[in-house]
Each structure stands twice: as C-alpha cells, then as structure tokens.
Amino acid sequence: MVLAAVHFLLKVPSAVSLRAPLRRSLQVSSPGYPVCTSQNFKNYEAIKQQYRPEVPEYFNFARDVLDRWTEMEKEAKRPKNPALWWVNGDGEEVRWSFEELGVLSRKVANVLSDACGLQQGDRVILILPRIPEWWLVNVACMRTGTVLIPGTQQLTAKDILHRLQKSKAKCIITDDSVAPAVESVGPECQSLKFKLLVSEGHREGWLNFKELLKRAPSDHHCVSTKHQDPMAIYFTSGTTGSPKMTEHSHGSYGIGLTVNGSYKFRSLRHCVSAGEPINPEVMGEWKEQTGLDIHEGYGQTETVLICGNFKGMKIKPGSMGKPSPGYEVKIIDENSNILPPGKEGDIAIRVKPTRPFCLFTCYTDDPEKTEATIRGNFYVTGDRGIMDEDGYFWFVGRADDVINSAGYRIGPFEVESALIEHPAVMEAAVVSSPDPIRGEVVKAFVVLTSDYVSRDPEKLMNELQDHVKKVTAPYKYPRKMEFVQQLPKTISGKIRRKELRQKEWRKV
Questions:
Q1: What pLDDT is stored for residue 33 in this prediction?
Q2: Which long-range contacts (CB under 8 A, 24 or more apart) does 129-133 make?
Q3: Confidence tier at 136 by pLDDT (50, 70, 90)
Q4: Which of 67, 137, 398, 427 has the CA that lies 20 to 30 A from 115?
C-alpha cells in the first residue's frame, strides 16, 4: 500500500514506493489534529459524500504524518515496513523505514539550517535526478520550513538563471551534471549564497552534501508551520508565456493531494493519467492491450486535481470526468455567469465566499497576475471547456489556443485527436494562422510516421484534410498544413502551441 499523500507530494516515479496503510495514516497527525477521514472510496458519489477534510491551524507533513508513523510502529512493535523503496536501472536499491527516513531527513535539515544558515521561509532550488537524496531534501525542507523549488535536469543555463533570479533562492542543490550551468549564471544571481553538490567528488565554491550529511547530528526540532504557510514553489510549464512561480502551502499540498490516492500496487488494476488530454485512439489502444480503462484527470500546477474520472465512474472517452470533491467547478462566461450544459466557456472554480484550501496561495511576488485569475466569485483556469447534461467536463483548449475562424470557435485538441487517428501521423499541433477572408484558419503542424515520410506531401495533406472532415465537423479541418520533424515542447514535454502560433502571425 502506498501512502498517497507522500506519493504525490514527493512526485514518486514508478521505481519508488512509499509504503504505509493509507486509511489509518490519513487520520493521524499531531495529537488533536485529525487531518483527513478515510478515503477508501468505491465510487464518485461516495467520494462527494465522504470527503470532509479537516484542515488544522498548524500542519507539517514531516512531523504530523511521517514522524507519527514512526511512533505508531514503535508502539505497536510491528515489523518495520519500508517508507521509501528505491531501485535504479542497475539493480541497486535503498530501503528506508519510517524511522530511518526520519533520522536521515533530520540530518539533512541540520545541513540546511547549520551549514547553510537557512531559515524558515528561505527558498531552496533542488535539481537532481530521482535519487534517494531527492526525497531527503524534500522532507528536510518541510522540517526547516524552507520553501522547496524543484526543477528537472533538462533545465538549460537560461532556465536556471530565470528561476534563480525570479525566486531569489539562497541555496541550490544539484549534482555534477548541472553544476557547470549553475556556475555559468551564478555571478548574475545576488541572492544565491550557498551551493550544495550531491557528489562523491569536490568542486570549488561548492559545499559537499554527502560529507556534510555524514557529520550532521540526527536530532532536529521540526519548525511549527501553519497550514497556509508556503511549502513549495513550482514553476509552471510555460506553454503560454514565461513560467510563473506557483506557491503551494503545507495544507494545499500536504493535505490537498490526499484525494488523488489509486494505493494498492499488488497488480495493475487502475490506470490514471494527467498532464495533457489523451487522444481517444491512445485510450482505445491501451484498453485493447491491458483490458483496463485510463481514468483521465485534469488539473494545473495551481490547483492539484480539478476534475477526474474517479473509481466506479462510467468513463466517457475524451472527457475529463467530474469535479474533484474539493472543488465546485463551473463553466462561466466573460461576465462570470454560469453557463448551461452544452455551452462552451471558461473552466472556473468557485473561490467566494470560501476559497478551497487545496488551491495555490498565489503567484509568488506577482500580485497582479494572482488577481487576474479571479473573475467575480471564481478562479479562472485559463482553459476552455464544456459540461454535458450528465455533469461530465470536456476540455476544448487553452483560452489562448482556441481558434476563431469565420465566426466558428475551434479547439485545437479535437483536430489534433482526429489527425492522430490517421496512421500517417506521429504527432500533431494545431494553431491559428492568419487569413485575409476568415480572419484566421486552422493550421496543423504534423510529424509523420516513418512509413509516410516519403509520400507525396500534397496528396498526403489532402488525405489528412479529408480524414479530419469525416471525423469532426467539416469546418474544423486544417486549411493549412506543414510537415515537420519535431514540435517545440516545454521541458515537461507539453507542446508549445504559442511558439507555433507566433511563428504564423509574424508573417502578417
């Protein structure tokens, strides 16, 4: 069994299991602070009825869940289950009990507070592969109250510079592969005071993380954090502009993510997906090969899960499912009016009179952008969608990506899905392109499969256009098409439609 809150909070990849009985763990925290009721839900209606999270004034996941589990194991005198089980591609593995995870994370907490002099509220950028130290730093930051800013190793020097300057981080923790990029931009970052290197070797100007860890004491008093205190800052994927700093609190992530938990891993029984909508053909292929449906979920860096196809729900292929029990989700117009089923509008979450605790706190250091997300009584996601008569939500596209051609509004995802169904198409991205008559038209950028690369481009384009006309409404077909070798993507793998759209409109 996987402790869902830890599993999602610490972004566990498939090679790692964080183990503990879910239902009991979510009912404990520090004495007198029940965190969440049992979430062994059987169906969507049960989820809506039973989801009643209690958000205490003070909450810290490291103290109130991880440490509490150590105490419970000791009191019960039962065998120690692994809290973290890590295995790499070479067969090397690490197993830590809750007690061991606690001891090691306290030592790392002392490295941060003593060797680096970091205090509660200071910001730390962490760029590591998914090695055990990655999780230790996560938990240590909770213990010290420092704000974690995770980053992928795919970040370029320019990306790192942007994150260091925007966040004003005092410390960065990384390894030998990323250290040169940090050094190249470090002089431009006045706030950066400490650089920790996770390596067996040494590097001038860097503190050696592993050596400091060996010498650090194992006793550390966890700071007292309120549930609304900042815990982590995530930079958005930047599909429509520069990445924004999205702040989450100890409550919004430490408690808010519990609703995401599918926790038995004895065999593959339940499949979920998120990030970008899955094309229906991919879902069909998965079902054919595994016998299992993919339960799609929809959310943002800012929100955690907004809608999902929860266990026991009937799945409508292509739908995002129904609202998470933590949110009241509506489709609204530009005047904040709630639209009826079947009408396209902005996907929004009600935040007044009560703001959901699992929603992000703010865009860090950017009150104007934070305020711009509020329209009337709603937080506006920036995505367009439709709700059907059964209460299921359907994704149309980012508001900036929707194409208005001769009065018709066309979402790129539907056209992309149609194109993907054709055997010639490996990937596709659809954007608006200027047109003197219609204002703008649909243009598709297509990556071909190997079997079709040598085909006649004009004939293939006509074939794909006819295919889209048959699969979707005829007016939605791409009047322009360009065959490319690859599509521009963010570091998280999302297609940068904005870049393609700007390329088209620069021609005007």
A1: 37
A2: 129/153, 129/175, 130/13, 130/15, 130/16, 130/86, 131/86, 131/88, 131/198, 132/84, 132/86, 132/94, 132/96, 133/108, 133/198, 133/209
A3: very high
A4: 67
Whole-number pLDDT of residue 41: 56
Closest to 488 measured CA to CA, from 442, 431, 423, 433? 431
- β pairing state of 408-410 and 171-174: unpaired
User: CA 251 to CA 293: how far, in whole Å?
Assistant: 31
Distance of alpha carbon 18 from alpha carbon 132, whole angstroms? 12
Whether the per-residue pLDDT at 27 is higher than 50: the answer is: no
pLDDT, tens only, 467-506: 999 988 889 999 999 999 999 988 777 888 889 999 999 8
User: In 10 A of CB 291, how many CB atoms?
Assistant: 8
**Which residues are within 8 A (CB) of 117 and not within 5 positions of it... i.e. 6 or more apart?**
193, 194
Question: Do 267-397 and 403-505 have matching folds?
Answer: no
Angle, in degrees to the nearest 10, between helices 132-144 and 98-110: 70
Parse the chain into domains and list their residue ranges: 4-249, 267-397, 403-505
Length of the chain, please? 508
pLDDT at position 109 over 90: yes
Q: How many CB atoms lie within 10 A of CB 199?
A: 17
**CA 126/CA 173 separation, integer angstroms:** 5
Selecting from 3.40.50.12780, 3.90.980.10, 3.20.20.70, 3.90.1210.10, what CATH number does the domain 4-249 have? Answer: 3.40.50.12780
Domain boundaries 267-397, CATH class: mainly beta
CATH assignment, 403-505: 3.30.300.30
Q: Please identify which residue in the block is written with the tokens 């709630």.
A: 338
